[in-house]
Amino acid sequence: MSKKVKEGIGLTFVNIFFIVICFVTLVPILYAFSVSLNANNSLLSSDFSFIPEHLTLNNYKAVFTEEPILLWLKNSLILAVVTLVLSLGTGVPAAYVFSRKKFPGRKAILRILILLYAFPSLLSMTALYKLLSPMGLINTKIGLIIVYTGTEAVFALWNMKGYFDTIPVEIEEAATIDGASSVQIVTRIVLPLAKPTIAVTAMMILIYVWNEYIFAINFMTGADTYTLAGGLYSLQATEMSGSWPIFAAASIVVSIPILIVFFALQKNMTTGLTSGGVKG
Amino acid sequence: MNRKKKNTLFAYAWSAPSLLLILLIVIFPILYTGYISLTNMNVYHWNDYEIIGLENYKDALFVFDNGFIKAFLVTILWTIVNMVLQLIIAFILASMLNIRKLKLRNVYKTLLIFPWAMPGYVSILLWKTGMFNSQFGLLNQWLASVGEEPVRWLNSDVMAFICCTVVNLWLALPFMITIIDGALQSIDKSYYESALLDGATWMERTRYITIPMIRAIIAPSVVITVFTTFKQFDVIYLLTQQVGSKTGADIHTIMTYAYENAFITNNYGYSSAISMIIFIILILFSMVTNMKPKEEEGRA
After folding, report:
1. A45 with A161, same domain?
2. What is the pLDDT of residues A69-100, one digit of tens each?
3. pTM
4. Which contacts (CB < 8 Å, 24+ apart) does range B195-202 have?
5. Interface of B with A in 159-188 (CB under 8 A)
C-alpha cells in the first residue's frame, strides 16, 4: 500500500471519529431542540428520532403566552443594565489607576483583590441575607443588584486592569508632554484603546446576571419577581410534574442570546479572559 | 502640592468608588460571615443568637459524622478525577485537531466548543431532564430500545458521582481543548522535523517536545480550572439535590455542603464556619500555586 493511500485511510478514520464525537457532544442540546419542536407528545415511546415527524411551534408559543417569560426577561434586563452601569462606571477609572499609577497601598489592595476574586459569593450568602433583610431589601431588585454589583465590581476591576497593563504607556506620556490633562488622556486616548476589553467585560457581566440563579431563587420568592434564570429554574420538568417540551423550548429561547454573544465575541473571549486575570 | 502627592490623591479619588463598593458589598459580608461563624445562629436563634466561640469549627473539623471531612475528601477526589480526565481527553482531542491535513478542523472546533457557549445551568438542567430522567431521559429510552431495564442514574452515590463527572467534563472540556489547541499551535514545527529525521516515535515526540513546550503556556489556565473545579457547585447541586427533588444520592462537595447547611437545614452559624474554612483553603491554595498580581514579575 502506498503512503498516500495509507494517509487517506487514516484521515478518513480521524474524520469519522470527530463526526461521532461532535454528535455525542451535541446530543443533549439536539434532543431538547427536537423535543421542543415535536408535535406528537410521544415522549415515552422508545422509537424516538432526532427529526420530529410533525413539526410544531406550539411549545414556543406556550412559553410566551402561558408563562410570564417576558416579565422575567424585563426583570433580568433591569438587573443586568443597572449592575453593568454600576460596576463598569466604578471599575473603569479604578482599573486605569491601578494599572498606571503608583501609590501607597496599591500592592496590598491588589493582593486582597486577587483573594476576593477567588472567593465564591455563594459562601457569604447567609451574611448577605442577614444584612439585607432588616433593610427590607429581600424580594426587591435593589437587593439582587447590590449582590451582583459586588461580585462583578471585583471582576470588572481585575479583568480590565489586566488589559490596561498591555496598552503601552508611551502614548500617554507623549500626550502629557503635549500638555493634555489627565481627564483628556483618559477620555481621548485610553478609553478608545480599551474599547475591546470594556466590551468583553460588559458582555461577561450581562452573561453573569443572565445566568445567575442561586441568589435569584433564594432572594426572590414571588413568580412576578423572578429573573429569567429563576423562572427557568421554576419551569423544570421533574420526575413528577412540569412539561418537558415547554421547558425544552424555554431553555432554547433563553440560550439563544447567549449563544449569539458568545460566538460573536469568541476570539476576544479566550484572550480577554486569559490575558487579563492572573498569570502563574 | 508636589507632583507625587497630587498623583496619589488622584489615584485614591479615581479608585475610591469601586473600592468602597467592594468594601461594603464583598469584604464586609465576608467579615460578617466570620462573625456569624462564632455564634449559634440558626432557624430558632435568628435574632437572639449568642457567641459560642470556636464550637462550630470544632464540630466541622473534629466530628467526622457531621460530614464536612467526608465532603472535603469527596471534593479532593472530584477535583483530581476531573482534572486528570480533562487534561488527558483535551490533549488527545487537541492533538487530533492539529493533524496536518485535517480540512474540517474549524468546523469540528466550533461544534466542540458549543457546550461552553450555552448558559451553564441550562445545560445542566437539560442533562438532568433530557438525559438522566428515569422515564423520558434519552439514556433510558436507548436502554429500553435494546430491551434493558431502566436505570435510575442519579439515585446512588457512585452512579451520581460518575454522571456529575460526565456533565462537568462536558461543560469544561471546550475551554481546555481551546487552551491546549492554542498552545500546540504555538510550537515551532521545525522541532518536529528534526525529531522525525532522528527517527523519534510519536510517544517520544510527545514526551520530549510537545509536553515540555506547552506546559508553561497552559499552566495558568490549568490553575484557574483547578480552582473552578474545586469550587464547583452547580453541577452537583442541580443534578442531585435541588429542593423538593433530591434524587437520593448523597454526594456533597464542600460547596454544596455549606449551602445545604445554610439554606436547607438553616444552621447558619455552622454553615458560616464551613464558609470560612473553605475561604482559608482557597487562600492557602492560591499561595501554594503562587498566584501573584500579574505585573509583579514585569512592569511597575
Report:
1. no
2. 899 999 999 999 999 999 999 999 999 999 98
3. 0.87
4. none
5. 170, 178-179, 182
